[in-house]
């Protein structure tokens, strides 16, 4: 279908060879990206062959091509979903007008900020996860980690293409800055707080891909609606890749839950002693990562969100399934904290769009948690994992600077300090989880604290040598 | 939509560090730390939240108080480091919702007061051996950057994210109203085309480019930020002279109230709401002029030279914020010329003493506040008055003066007016010219000659052009009454514009452009539908709908 140039220096389906200026700009950025990848990408595995999925086309047949490749040779590239003919802006003040193929001048700053903020998370997560390979529970998981990493790298390419292609000199500078910031570096931190915390154990990695990458999915869904067509097309294709990341997260946590259930069924009263992760501890990790991810949606009442929507740059997910697309003269009933009480307040819908997106996200997360609980039920274990109330452990928005327990009950600062280790991983908990992290690198073997997957990758068995370590 | 702020408690401009909500002032040897850590749920009035270290009048009243205290109470301080108590945010500037909720008059007075406070910082740097360093640890937007612009040295954290910005034009459809535009080009000498880009770029400029363009003086990575701030603080210290000896206690100005009228020790303010006038009478000093600088400082806030001017300042701010309908100020004095001149001479002879210098620059600031009143000013020079030296500046500041030439031996001696050494340039107006220079269009020899002459009887004063009208007792009362009634009947807007245009002849400088050019345009924009109409940018900021502009240029 598409004009795929897979074997160019920069694989692409945007006719890069016809756009000499853009090609030159991207080729200049390429070595910087490569050296960033060598410095900040997965530590210690750059020379190994990894069974990776590479996109070779953007239609369903083409985006899942599997082969052993070395990560630095991965075909990073620029792939946009096919252009829809006569696409119109689907929401906001410009609704019904043709989508923009070039950046509208009046929204240039806003649009660039949106893209840079999204782009910054892509390399950030690679940096956060760079040491995880040292403690993989199996080759299968190691491969999944690397798949996630290379795709985050490709997502960076997708965003950098937009910056280079549509934002001139400023865009090029922003693209350079994306490689200059470093997760957790106090001098050059990544833009969003949650992307500056290192991910040092695999339970956190699975939680991250389950919850934090799912925020990414919802941001991409909202950007896929954009009236700026190149952004919409880019993000639509990114979404197909993002789905795998959530698969890694959801099944990863699911397999930990399953292993814990097995250990309990085997009569281990103390799961920790048996080398597993006890369910209350899983709940604490869930509490932590779910809430960090909730913050990524931004404040409940946001003038930026209203502006992004009004100007047609960022919509609601699946805008076409809604009946009304201006979001004017409508109100949203928002959970707020006033005078020591949680209560409801009416907010103009446009200002509440962060919360609208967060609602869909919470529902989606709940579906994953339900599947984990089903596993527990199947093992006859009477324990339910729960998403904490959205007022719990928040650092942004209405509930920042105030404390609540996971049920949403208000806690004084004193009570919170006393009880927070009941809700969130304590230092002791983290030390314990770390103590479980020992690399298992033989094909077909797996760490004790996690169950093997039901299926391998691309029809291969679990024993398959997903990463060739020799 | 929230209600417009209009009916409310009078604004009180007095506070104390113990009562600050938003600033933390601490003294560390010869360095003062002034930390902006705004309590978002403590707005001055109204129901907006002061998010992201954004400020309102309450925050600025505290700042003004802190600056005065640093000048008078803490001579040991050489450098003031302004920083933020919030992580990654210096300040997002004036609170937009506050502006949205405020009526036009409050907005204008708010901007004027904040401008005066920033000028007071620059004045302290120029005249008081104090230097200001702005430690910009994160977002520094709009009024936040304008506050930094009033400092001598700006250090911005270099984290690839933190920027300085003036986003008012692109985001709010108004101007950065606290001197930002003017200081960028006039003070920091940012090239005007780069300034044009900067002022239309809502995200601002960060890192090396901010230094290259002259928007900040230095950048430093987060891990070295403190070190660089400390190093540059030491460097600033080395540029200033010691202010030896102890400071005074900056205790509050006290007064009794009778409705809108106030009685202070040396000043009385009488508001006539019917006539829409305010009469300010200043009692001159007694015969007890200070004997020495040490004696003068010992008296602290109770010396006439300081107390009378603090009281006048308080009365002027009260008139501005709380008495918008009083459109005409009548200024009178009461006392003996020789006593005023004795104080003046003492101050002039001891001006090398830091404290005497502080008092003189304070008087100068109060007189500039008077020049900037959006009210008509008439000086009424009557028998037993003391329009001499520093107090004659009041007559010079007035739009006109009426002298009652009533030389009747049975009653009082006709009033004389007198010039002293301080009239020669100790009290510059906003545009840096003395009021006498302005009165005689820069004719320095005329000014010198008049100061030499010293005292003027009514006829001399009229001949010299020092007063507007000299009237005998038959005409005075009626002439003044008619003038007051006539003045009170004219359009208040036109009068404000006219007076602001006539009061400042001569060349402009950065400060006067802020109050003239910048404020005038801002005040116009504040009234335009493109800003405050139902679809105006300021009105709709933070609302679900985007502004719609009337594209016609005016």
From TrEMBL, chain A:
<dbReference type="GO" id="GO:0016491">
    <property type="term" value="F:oxidoreductase activity"/>
</dbReference>
<keyword id="KW-0560">Oxidoreductase</keyword>
<dbReference type="InterPro" id="IPR012348">
    <property type="entry name" value="RNR-like"/>
</dbReference>
<dbReference type="InterPro" id="IPR052703">
    <property type="entry name" value="Aromatic_CoA_ox/epox"/>
</dbReference>
<protein>
    <submittedName>
        <fullName>Benzoyl-CoA 2,3-epoxidase subunit BoxB</fullName>
        <ecNumber>1.14.13.208</ecNumber>
    </submittedName>
</protein>
<dbReference type="InterPro" id="IPR017635">
    <property type="entry name" value="Benzoyl_CoA_Oase_BoxB"/>
</dbReference>
<dbReference type="GO" id="GO:0010124">
    <property type="term" value="P:phenylacetate catabolic process"/>
</dbReference>
<dbReference type="GO" id="GO:0005829">
    <property type="term" value="C:cytosol"/>
</dbReference>
<dbReference type="InterPro" id="IPR009078">
    <property type="entry name" value="Ferritin-like_SF"/>
</dbReference>
From TrEMBL, chain B:
<dbReference type="InterPro" id="IPR029045">
    <property type="entry name" value="ClpP/crotonase-like_dom_sf"/>
</dbReference>
<protein>
    <submittedName>
        <fullName>Benzoyl-CoA-dihydrodiol lyase</fullName>
    </submittedName>
</protein>
<keyword id="KW-0456">Lyase</keyword>
<dbReference type="GO" id="GO:0006635">
    <property type="term" value="P:fatty acid beta-oxidation"/>
</dbReference>
<dbReference type="InterPro" id="IPR001753">
    <property type="entry name" value="Enoyl-CoA_hydra/iso"/>
</dbReference>
<dbReference type="Pfam" id="PF00378">
    <property type="entry name" value="ECH_1"/>
</dbReference>
<dbReference type="GO" id="GO:0016829">
    <property type="term" value="F:lyase activity"/>
</dbReference>
<dbReference type="InterPro" id="IPR017633">
    <property type="entry name" value="Benz-CoA_dihydrodiol_lyase"/>
</dbReference>
């Amino acid at each position: 279908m598409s004009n795929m140039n897979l074997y160019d220096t920069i694989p692409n389906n945007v006719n890069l060879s016809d756009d000499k200026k853009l090609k030159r700009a991207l080729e200049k950025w390429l070595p910087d990206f490569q050296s960033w990848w060598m410095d900040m990408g997965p530590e210690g595995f750059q020379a190994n062959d990894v069974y990776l999925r590479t996109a070779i086309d953007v239609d369903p047949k083409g985006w899942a091509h599997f082969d052993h490749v070395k990560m630095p040779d991965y075909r990073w590239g620029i792939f946009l979903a096919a252009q829809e003919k006569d696409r119109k802006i689907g929401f906001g003040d410009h609704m019904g007008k043709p989508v923009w193929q070039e950046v509208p001048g009046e929204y240039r700053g806003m649009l660039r900020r949106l893209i840079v903020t999204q782009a910054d998370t892509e390399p950030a997560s690679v940096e956060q996860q760079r040491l995880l390979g040292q403690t993989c529970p199996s080759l299968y998981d190691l491969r999944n980690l690397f798949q996630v990493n290379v795709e985050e790298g490709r997502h960076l390419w997708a965003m950098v293409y937009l910056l280079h292609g549509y934002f001139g000199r400023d865009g090029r500078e922003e693209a350079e800055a994306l490689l200059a910031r470093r997760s957790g570096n106090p001098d050059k931190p990544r833009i969003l707080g949650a992307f500056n915390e290192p991910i040092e154990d695999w339970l956190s990695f699975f939680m991250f891909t389950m919850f934090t990458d799912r925020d990414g999915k919802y941001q991409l869904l909202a950007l896929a609606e954009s009236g700026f067509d190149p952004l919409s097309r880019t993000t639509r294709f990114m979404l197909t890749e993002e789905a795998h990341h959530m698969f890694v997260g959801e099944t990863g946590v699911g397999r930990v839950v399953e292993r814990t259930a097995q250990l309990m069924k085997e009569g281990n009263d103390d799961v920790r002693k048996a080398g597993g992760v006890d369910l209350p501890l899983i709940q604490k990790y869930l509490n932590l990562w779910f809430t960090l991810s909730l913050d990524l949606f931004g404040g409940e009442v946001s003038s930026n969100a209203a502006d992004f929507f009004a100007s047609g740059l960022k919509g609601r997910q699946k805008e076409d399934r809604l009946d009304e697309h201006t979001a004017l003269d409508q109100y949203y009933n928002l959970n707020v904290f006033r005078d020591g009480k949680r209560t409801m307040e009416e907010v103009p819908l446009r200002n509440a769009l962060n919360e609208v997106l967060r609602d869909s996200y919470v529902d989606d997360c709940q579906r994953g948690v339900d599947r984990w609980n089903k596993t527990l039920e199947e093992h006859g274990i009477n324990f339910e994992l729960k998403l904490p109330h959205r007022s719990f452990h928040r650092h942004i928005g209405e509930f920042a600077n105030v404390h609540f327990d996971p049920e949403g009950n208000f806690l004084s600062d004193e009570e919170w300090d006393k009880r927070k280790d009941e809700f969130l991983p304590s230092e002791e908990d983290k030390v314990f989880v770390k103590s479980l992290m020992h690399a298992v690198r033989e094909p077909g073997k797996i760490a004790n604290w996690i169950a093997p997957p039901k299926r391998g990758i691309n029809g291969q068995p679990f024993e398959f040598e997903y990463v060739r370590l020799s | 939509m929230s209600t417009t702020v209009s009916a409310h408690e009078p604004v009180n401009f007095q506070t104390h560090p113990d009562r600050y909500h938003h600033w933390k002032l601490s003294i560390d040897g010869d360095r003062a730390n002034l930390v902006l850590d705004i309590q978002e749920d403590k707005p001055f009035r109204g129901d907006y939240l002061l998010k992201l270290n954004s400020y309102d009048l309450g925050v600025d009243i505290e700042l003004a108080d802190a600056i005065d205290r640093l000048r008078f109470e803490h001579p040991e301080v050489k450098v003031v480091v302004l920083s933020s108590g919030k992580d990654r945010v210096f300040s997002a500037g004036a609170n937009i919702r506050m502006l949205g909720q405020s009526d036009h008059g409050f907005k204008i007075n708010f901007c004027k007061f904040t401008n005066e406070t920033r000028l007071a910082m620059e004045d302290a740097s120029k005249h008081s051996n104090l230097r200001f360093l702005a430690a910009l640890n994160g977002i520094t937007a709009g009024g936040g950057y304008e506050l930094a612009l009033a400092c001598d040295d700006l250090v911005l954290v270099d984290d690839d994210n933190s920027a300085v910005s003036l986003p008012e034009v692109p985001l709010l459809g108004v101007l950065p109203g606290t001197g930002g535009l003017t200081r960028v080009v006039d003070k920091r000498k940012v090239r005007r085309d780069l300034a044009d880009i900067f002022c239309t770029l809502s995200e601002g400029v960060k890192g090396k480019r901010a230094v290259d363009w002259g928007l900040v003086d230095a950048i430093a990575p987060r891990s070295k930020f403190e070190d660089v701030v400390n190093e540059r603080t030491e460097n600033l210290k080395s540029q200033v002279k010691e202010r030896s000896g102890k400071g005074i206690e900056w205790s509050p100005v006290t007064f009794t109230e009778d409705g809108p009228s106030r009685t202070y020790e040396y000043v009385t303010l009488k508001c006539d709401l019917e006539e829409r006038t305010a009469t300010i009478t200043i009692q001159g000093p007694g015969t007890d002029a200070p004997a020495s600088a040490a004696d003068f400082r010992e008296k602290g806030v109770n010396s006439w030279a300081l107390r009378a001017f603090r009281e006048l300042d308080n009365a002027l701010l009260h008139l501005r914020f709380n008495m918008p309908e009083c459109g005409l100020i009548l200024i009178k004095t009461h006392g003996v010329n020789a006593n005023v001149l004795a104080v003046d001479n003492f101050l002039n002879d001891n001006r090398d003493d830091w404290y005497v210098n502080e008092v003189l620059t304070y008087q100068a600031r109060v007189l500039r506040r008077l020049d900037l009143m959006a009210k008509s000013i008439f000086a009424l020079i009557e028998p037993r008055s003391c329009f001499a030296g520093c107090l004659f500046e009041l007559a010079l500041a007035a739009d006109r003066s009426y002298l009652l030439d009533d030389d009747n031996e049975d009653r009082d001696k006709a009033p004389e007016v007198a010039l002293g050494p301080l009239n020669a340039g100790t009290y510059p107006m906003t545009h840096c010219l003395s009021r006498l220079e302005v009165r005689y269009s820069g004719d320095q020899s005329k000014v010198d000659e008049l100061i030499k002459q010293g005292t003027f009887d009514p006829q001399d004063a009229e001949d010299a052009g020092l007063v507007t009208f000299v009237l005998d007792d038959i005409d005075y009362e009626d002439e003044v009454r008619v003038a007051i009634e006539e003045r009170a009947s004219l359009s208040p807007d036109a009068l404000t514009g006219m007076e602001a245009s006539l009061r400042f002849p001569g060349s402009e400088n950065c400060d006067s452009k802020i109050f003239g050019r910048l404020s005038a345009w801002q005040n116009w924009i504040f009234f335009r539908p493109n800003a405050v109409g139902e679809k105006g940018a300021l009105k709709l900021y933070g609302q679900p709908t985007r502004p719609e502009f009337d594209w016609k240029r005016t």
